[in-house]
Amino acid sequence: MKEAINPKMVQIEENFRQVCVKIKKKGRTILNEFEITPPQFAALLELIEHGDMTIGELSARMYLACSTVTDLLDRMERNLLVVRTKDEKDRRIVRIQVLEKGHNLIEEVLYVRCKYIEEVLSEMNPESIDEIERCFTYLNRHMTI
What we know:
Blueprint lengths: L6 H28 L3 H13 L4 H8 L3 H13 L3 E5 L7 E5 L1 H21 L5 H17 L3
Antiparallel strand pairs: 1-2
Helix pairs in contact: 1-5, 3-4
């Protein structure tokens, strides 16, 4: 028999789920303004946040097949967002590096996304916004996948 779930936890889970869906939809709308696909955005974020990677490493981080990531990188390379380079220590290894255009694009997209969040929270008092930031920082540190 399953243990009863606190109704407040049910409500929190539902609100998180709905907020995630809304952020995802708004994020896709924003990306349309920049002519970048959600997978390209995700790949650029992974590369910027975690540094140069091999296709295998990026595939694992994105939970995608290597062939899918290879196709994705082909398009990104044609758009001058990334470049493949040989590893300095082992020339058999190819690493993906984000080019200046890729960095600039992510910076612009994140700026628009942050402005959206700022607009949504504009009627809240600063203390409530600080509490949201503290709560999400806590969740981000303690939730694992």
